[in-house]
Amino acid sequence: MDFKKVLRLIVIGDLSDVAISQVCAAHRTTVAKYRRKLHDHPLGLEQIDELTVDALRAVLGLKRRPPPNQWTEPDWDLMARRMSSEKGMVITVLHDEYFRQAENPMSYTRFRRRLSAHLKKRGPIMRQIRVAGEEAFVDFSGKRPKITDPLTGKTRPVELFVGALGHSRLIFATAVPDQSTQSWIKATVAMFDYYGGTPKYLVPDNLKAAVLHPRSHARGQILNPGFDRAMQHYGVTPLPARVRSPQDKGLVEQSVLHVKRWITLRLSGQTFHSIAELNRAIAMELDRIN
Description:
Layout: H1 3-12, H2 17-24, H3 28-40, H4 45-50, H5 53-60, H6 76-85, H7 91-101, H8 108-122, E1 135-140, E2 146-148, E3 155-157, E4 159-165, E5 171-176, H9 181-195, E6 201-203, E7 211-213, E8 222-223, H10 225-233, E9 237-238, H11 250-267, H12 275-289
Parallel strand pairs: 1-6, 6-9
Antiparallel strand pairs: 1-4, 2-3, 4-5, 7-8
């Protein structure tokens, strides 16, 4: 596509968007977008000829498309699992979530083509049947919210604990100071209170607050003693996910994505002076998304 040629034809005004797209080998929606940009930022033919392509894109407020090897790559395995496990899930919804979060998102057409190719490579899959009340999946979110010291104005990140029930997929989230065993246990108990009961099994990742050695270790799996005792008290059996086995914790990864999009990002523009204040806001958002 000749970018300058498209702009010239739009400014001349003799051809429709469809006609320009045919002449310049550009998609008609792209031509329509450039027409809107030129309406907001009028340019003459002389300016189009004199300015470089980069300068023209800057004037029109067009973000330069990165080279193909610089697209932000989504987790294709996770996308494929969501397509197969979430009833009614379509590629359009997945791309919309990805587009909002990615730094350099690829187009819908490219995303659909890449995901379709990945689905073909995976071959047949087996659906996992979840029994009500049997499992809860837990992890910390990578996207950490912040609280602000009311005296100094300095901000510091806190951890966001996320849980989800295997059958109903009911999501829970709460902020804690750190990833210590004490904070992990406190968040887990808060999740039990939120659900009004305890699951039969709890599936955490292999973080130190829950697991000292994964099952692949030479000594075998060793749970964090404090966490193990707390779960024994509540009659819950921990079943940590296997190392490098994302299928074991796909459900909580999906929940983390939902929490990032519908809670963390929505609250990012607000100021909180304590974890308690932040958790009150999180609780309100949980009621909305559940």
